[in-house]
Design goal:
About 20% of the residues lie in helices and about 40% in strands. It is of the alpha+beta class and about 70 residues long. It has one domain (about 5-74): Roll (SH3 type barrels). One of its GO terms (molecular function) is transition metal ion binding.
């Protein structure tokens, strides 16, 4: 996904994440049906963290969290 390109989260593989991480992501509105966009990527090796726009909020997530999500462009 390119920066600022809009997408909808179709599925999140919660089993790929620790239970407390999943709970935190859900509390921030990251779940199936949420509309998101990448605001920024990290500049260091691995491009971690990723700043994800969820509504009007920016959330920093790790690449491992992003890999657990399936999105479709909107």
């Amino acid at each position: 996904m390119a920066p600022l390109e809009r997408a909808e989260i179709v599925h999140v593989d919660w089993s790929a994440l620790a239970p407390d991480e999943g709970k935190r992501l859900r509390a921030m509105g990251i779940d199936a049906g949420a509309r998101v966009a990448i605001a920024h990527r990290g500049i260091f090796v691995g491009k971690d963290p990723i700043a994800l726009m969820v509504g009007r909020m920016n959330v920093a997530i790790r690449r491992v969290h992003a890999r657990a999500m399936t999105v479709r462009l909107v």
